[in-house]
Design a protein that fits this description.
Rossmann fold; two-stranded parallel ribbon; six-stranded parallel sheet; 9 helices; alpha/beta
Length: 284
Protein backbone atom coordinates (compact mmCIF):
# COMPACT_ATOMS: atom_id res chain seq x y z
CA UNK A 1 0.00 0.00 0.00
CA UNK A 2 1.25 3.47 -0.94
CA UNK A 3 0.25 5.99 1.74
CA UNK A 4 0.55 9.76 1.50
CA UNK A 5 1.15 11.15 4.99
CA UNK A 6 0.39 14.84 5.53
CA UNK A 7 2.02 16.35 8.61
CA UNK A 8 4.85 13.84 8.60
CA UNK A 9 7.07 15.84 10.98
CA UNK A 10 4.46 16.22 13.72
CA UNK A 11 4.18 14.27 16.97
CA UNK A 12 1.80 11.68 15.52
CA UNK A 13 3.15 11.86 11.97
CA UNK A 14 6.61 10.88 13.21
CA UNK A 15 5.22 7.71 14.79
CA UNK A 16 3.10 6.88 11.74
CA UNK A 17 6.25 7.02 9.63
CA UNK A 18 7.94 4.53 11.98
CA UNK A 19 4.95 2.17 12.05
CA UNK A 20 4.16 2.13 8.32
CA UNK A 21 7.80 2.20 7.19
CA UNK A 22 8.46 2.20 3.47
CA UNK A 23 4.75 2.34 2.65
CA UNK A 24 4.70 6.02 3.62
CA UNK A 25 5.38 8.99 1.38
CA UNK A 26 5.94 11.72 3.99
CA UNK A 27 4.92 15.32 3.34
CA UNK A 28 5.59 18.26 5.64
CA UNK A 29 3.88 21.66 5.67
CA UNK A 30 6.52 23.03 3.29
CA UNK A 31 5.60 20.32 0.76
CA UNK A 32 1.80 20.53 0.86
CA UNK A 33 -0.51 23.31 2.00
CA UNK A 34 -3.95 21.79 2.52
CA UNK A 35 -5.67 25.19 2.47
CA UNK A 36 -4.55 25.49 -1.17
CA UNK A 37 -6.99 23.24 -3.04
CA UNK A 38 -5.22 23.47 -6.41
CA UNK A 39 -1.77 22.92 -5.00
CA UNK A 40 -2.92 19.99 -2.88
CA UNK A 41 -4.61 18.40 -5.88
CA UNK A 42 -1.39 18.58 -7.91
CA UNK A 43 0.64 16.97 -5.12
CA UNK A 44 -1.82 14.14 -4.53
CA UNK A 45 -2.38 13.44 -8.22
CA UNK A 46 1.38 13.35 -8.81
CA UNK A 47 1.92 10.83 -5.99
CA UNK A 48 -1.18 8.76 -6.85
CA UNK A 49 -1.43 7.11 -3.39
CA UNK A 50 -3.61 4.21 -2.30
CA UNK A 51 -4.61 6.18 0.83
CA UNK A 52 -4.08 9.59 2.41
CA UNK A 53 -3.52 10.19 6.13
CA UNK A 54 -4.06 13.77 7.27
CA UNK A 55 -2.54 14.77 10.62
CA UNK A 56 -2.23 18.46 9.73
CA UNK A 57 -4.16 20.80 12.03
CA UNK A 58 -4.17 24.21 13.66
CA UNK A 59 -4.52 23.06 17.25
CA UNK A 60 -3.19 25.75 19.54
CA UNK A 61 -6.44 26.39 21.43
CA UNK A 62 -5.78 30.00 22.51
CA UNK A 63 -4.52 30.91 19.02
CA UNK A 64 -7.63 29.35 17.45
CA UNK A 65 -9.78 31.52 19.71
CA UNK A 66 -7.87 34.64 18.65
CA UNK A 67 -7.76 33.65 14.97
CA UNK A 68 -10.95 31.68 14.18
CA UNK A 69 -10.59 32.42 10.46
CA UNK A 70 -7.23 30.65 10.39
CA UNK A 71 -8.59 27.78 12.47
CA UNK A 72 -11.44 27.23 10.01
CA UNK A 73 -9.21 27.65 6.98
CA UNK A 74 -6.90 24.85 8.16
CA UNK A 75 -9.16 22.55 10.18
CA UNK A 76 -12.34 22.82 8.10
CA UNK A 77 -11.55 24.10 4.60
CA UNK A 78 -8.27 22.16 4.49
CA UNK A 79 -10.14 18.97 5.39
CA UNK A 80 -12.76 19.74 2.72
CA UNK A 81 -10.06 20.18 0.09
CA UNK A 82 -8.57 16.78 0.87
CA UNK A 83 -12.00 15.14 0.95
CA UNK A 84 -12.89 16.60 -2.45
CA UNK A 85 -9.60 15.43 -4.00
CA UNK A 86 -9.86 11.95 -2.48
CA UNK A 87 -13.50 11.65 -3.58
CA UNK A 88 -12.58 12.56 -7.16
CA UNK A 89 -9.88 9.87 -7.27
CA UNK A 90 -11.59 7.24 -5.09
CA UNK A 91 -8.82 7.40 -2.48
CA UNK A 92 -9.52 6.51 1.18
CA UNK A 93 -8.85 9.39 3.57
CA UNK A 94 -7.80 8.95 7.19
CA UNK A 95 -8.49 12.22 8.99
CA UNK A 96 -7.35 12.92 12.56
CA UNK A 97 -9.72 14.74 14.87
CA UNK A 98 -9.98 15.50 18.58
CA UNK A 99 -11.82 14.95 21.87
CA UNK A 100 -12.45 18.71 21.91
CA UNK A 101 -15.50 18.24 19.68
CA UNK A 102 -17.36 17.28 22.91
CA UNK A 103 -18.57 19.64 25.65
CA UNK A 104 -17.40 17.53 28.59
CA UNK A 105 -20.82 17.37 30.27
CA UNK A 106 -21.45 13.63 29.90
CA UNK A 107 -19.40 12.58 32.93
CA UNK A 108 -18.39 9.22 31.42
CA UNK A 109 -16.22 8.29 28.41
CA UNK A 110 -17.56 9.47 25.07
CA UNK A 111 -18.32 6.85 22.42
CA UNK A 112 -18.28 7.24 18.66
CA UNK A 113 -22.08 7.52 18.74
CA UNK A 114 -22.25 10.47 21.17
CA UNK A 115 -23.43 13.79 19.73
CA UNK A 116 -20.63 16.41 19.49
CA UNK A 117 -21.07 19.83 21.06
CA UNK A 118 -17.81 21.80 20.97
CA UNK A 119 -17.25 24.80 23.24
CA UNK A 120 -14.51 26.78 21.51
CA UNK A 121 -13.20 27.81 18.09
CA UNK A 122 -10.74 24.92 17.93
CA UNK A 123 -13.39 22.28 18.64
CA UNK A 124 -15.92 23.90 16.31
CA UNK A 125 -13.41 24.11 13.46
CA UNK A 126 -12.38 20.47 13.92
CA UNK A 127 -16.01 19.33 13.96
CA UNK A 128 -16.64 21.26 10.75
CA UNK A 129 -13.69 19.41 9.23
CA UNK A 130 -15.20 16.11 10.35
CA UNK A 131 -18.47 16.95 8.59
CA UNK A 132 -16.65 17.71 5.34
CA UNK A 133 -14.65 14.47 5.55
CA UNK A 134 -17.79 12.44 6.28
CA UNK A 135 -19.17 13.34 2.84
CA UNK A 136 -16.42 11.10 1.46
CA UNK A 137 -17.48 7.50 0.92
CA UNK A 138 -14.11 6.06 1.99
CA UNK A 139 -13.24 8.00 5.12
CA UNK A 140 -11.86 7.11 8.54
CA UNK A 141 -12.28 9.94 11.04
CA UNK A 142 -10.10 9.10 14.03
CA UNK A 143 -10.45 11.11 17.23
CA UNK A 144 -7.45 11.24 19.55
CA UNK A 145 -7.03 12.64 23.07
CA UNK A 146 -4.10 14.25 24.94
CA UNK A 147 -1.30 12.95 22.73
CA UNK A 148 2.26 12.39 23.95
CA UNK A 149 5.15 11.17 21.82
CA UNK A 150 8.93 11.32 21.78
CA UNK A 151 9.11 13.91 18.99
CA UNK A 152 6.82 16.28 20.89
CA UNK A 153 4.26 18.66 19.45
CA UNK A 154 5.70 20.85 16.69
CA UNK A 155 3.26 23.67 17.49
CA UNK A 156 4.47 23.65 21.11
CA UNK A 157 8.16 23.81 20.29
CA UNK A 158 8.67 20.05 20.52
CA UNK A 159 7.03 19.81 23.94
CA UNK A 160 4.14 17.79 25.33
CA UNK A 161 2.74 17.39 28.84
CA UNK A 162 5.12 14.60 29.83
CA UNK A 163 8.20 16.42 28.54
CA UNK A 164 7.10 19.55 30.41
CA UNK A 165 6.66 17.65 33.67
CA UNK A 166 10.07 15.99 33.29
CA UNK A 167 11.61 19.40 32.77
CA UNK A 168 9.83 20.78 35.86
CA UNK A 169 11.18 17.88 37.92
CA UNK A 170 14.69 19.10 37.13
CA UNK A 171 14.11 22.81 37.61
CA UNK A 172 11.40 23.23 40.27
CA UNK A 173 10.61 22.05 43.80
CA UNK A 174 6.83 22.58 43.59
CA UNK A 175 4.24 22.94 40.84
CA UNK A 176 0.47 23.31 40.53
CA UNK A 177 -1.42 21.15 38.03
CA UNK A 178 -5.06 21.25 36.98
CA UNK A 179 -7.14 18.63 38.81
CA UNK A 180 -10.62 19.07 37.30
CA UNK A 181 -9.82 18.59 33.59
CA UNK A 182 -10.00 14.88 32.69
CA UNK A 183 -9.05 13.13 29.45
CA UNK A 184 -7.50 9.93 28.10
CA UNK A 185 -3.71 10.37 27.67
CA UNK A 186 -2.64 8.67 24.46
CA UNK A 187 0.81 7.46 23.45
CA UNK A 188 1.53 8.49 19.86
CA UNK A 189 3.14 5.11 19.08
CA UNK A 190 0.00 3.24 20.20
CA UNK A 191 -2.19 5.61 18.16
CA UNK A 192 -0.07 5.04 15.06
CA UNK A 193 -0.36 1.27 15.47
CA UNK A 194 -4.15 1.56 15.81
CA UNK A 195 -4.36 3.73 12.69
CA UNK A 196 -2.46 1.07 10.75
CA UNK A 197 -4.80 -1.60 12.11
CA UNK A 198 -7.89 0.34 11.03
CA UNK A 199 -6.57 1.24 7.59
CA UNK A 200 -5.10 -2.18 6.84
CA UNK A 201 -7.85 -4.25 8.44
CA UNK A 202 -11.42 -5.05 7.59
CA UNK A 203 -12.94 -1.98 9.21
CA UNK A 204 -15.83 -0.11 7.57
CA UNK A 205 -15.49 3.62 6.90
CA UNK A 206 -16.67 5.84 9.73
CA UNK A 207 -15.71 7.48 13.02
CA UNK A 208 -13.28 5.77 15.41
CA UNK A 209 -11.96 6.76 18.81
CA UNK A 210 -8.30 6.10 19.49
CA UNK A 211 -7.06 6.59 23.05
CA UNK A 212 -5.25 4.60 25.67
CA UNK A 213 -7.63 2.93 28.12
CA UNK A 214 -8.64 4.80 31.23
CA UNK A 215 -8.92 8.46 32.18
CA UNK A 216 -7.20 10.87 34.53
CA UNK A 217 -6.86 14.54 35.35
CA UNK A 218 -3.71 16.43 34.43
CA UNK A 219 -2.90 16.39 38.17
CA UNK A 220 -3.19 12.58 38.31
CA UNK A 221 -1.16 12.31 35.12
CA UNK A 222 1.62 14.41 36.63
CA UNK A 223 1.65 12.33 39.83
CA UNK A 224 2.01 9.13 37.78
CA UNK A 225 4.84 10.59 35.70
CA UNK A 226 6.75 11.49 38.85
CA UNK A 227 5.93 8.14 40.49
CA UNK A 228 7.28 6.18 37.53
CA UNK A 229 10.41 8.32 37.23
CA UNK A 230 11.04 8.59 40.97
CA UNK A 231 11.16 12.37 40.78
CA UNK A 232 11.08 14.33 44.03
CA UNK A 233 8.77 17.28 43.46
CA UNK A 234 5.71 18.57 45.29
CA UNK A 235 2.54 18.63 43.19
CA UNK A 236 -0.45 20.71 44.28
CA UNK A 237 -3.91 20.39 42.75
CA UNK A 238 -5.37 23.44 41.02
CA UNK A 239 -9.02 23.86 40.07
CA UNK A 240 -9.72 25.64 36.80
CA UNK A 241 -12.69 28.01 36.77
CA UNK A 242 -14.23 30.19 34.09
CA UNK A 243 -12.84 33.19 35.95
CA UNK A 244 -9.30 31.87 35.65
CA UNK A 245 -9.67 30.44 32.13
CA UNK A 246 -10.86 32.89 29.48
CA UNK A 247 -11.41 30.13 26.90
CA UNK A 248 -14.20 27.63 27.43
CA UNK A 249 -12.74 24.14 27.60
CA UNK A 250 -14.50 20.81 28.14
CA UNK A 251 -13.71 19.43 31.61
CA UNK A 252 -14.23 15.72 30.83
CA UNK A 253 -13.32 14.30 27.43
CA UNK A 254 -12.26 10.71 28.10
CA UNK A 255 -12.80 8.58 24.99
CA UNK A 256 -14.25 5.06 24.81
CA UNK A 257 -13.00 2.96 21.89
CA UNK A 258 -16.08 0.83 21.27
CA UNK A 259 -15.56 0.06 17.58
CA UNK A 260 -12.10 -1.53 17.81
CA UNK A 261 -10.18 -3.48 20.41
CA UNK A 262 -9.23 -1.03 23.17
CA UNK A 263 -5.64 0.10 23.55
CA UNK A 264 -3.67 -0.75 26.70
CA UNK A 265 -3.95 1.48 29.76
CA UNK A 266 -2.38 4.93 29.70
CA UNK A 267 -0.18 3.97 32.68
CA UNK A 268 1.30 1.02 30.75
CA UNK A 269 1.80 3.22 27.71
CA UNK A 270 3.48 5.91 29.80
CA UNK A 271 5.97 3.34 31.10
CA UNK A 272 7.06 2.46 27.56
CA UNK A 273 7.11 6.10 26.53
CA UNK A 274 9.46 7.00 29.38
CA UNK A 275 11.81 4.19 28.32
CA UNK A 276 11.76 5.52 24.75
CA UNK A 277 12.30 9.08 25.98
CA UNK A 278 15.33 8.01 28.02
CA UNK A 279 16.79 6.14 25.05
CA UNK A 280 16.38 9.16 22.77
CA UNK A 281 18.08 11.43 25.34
CA UNK A 282 21.05 9.06 25.60
CA UNK A 283 21.39 8.92 21.82
CA UNK A 284 21.28 12.71 21.65
Amino acid sequence: MKILLIGADGQLGTEIRKVFGEEVMPLTHSEIEITDAGGSRKVIEKQSPDAVINTAAYHNVPDCEKNPETAFRVNAVGAKNLADICQAHNIPLVHLSTDYIFDGQKGSPYTEEDVPRPLNAYGISKLAGEFFVQTLEKHYTIRISSLFGVSGCRAKGGKNFVKTMLEFAKTRDRIQVTANVVSSPTYARDAALKIKEILSGDYPPGIYHCANRGACSWYEFALEIFRQTGASIEVAARIETEELEAIKRPLYTALATNKTNPLRSWKEALKDYLKEENSSLKEA
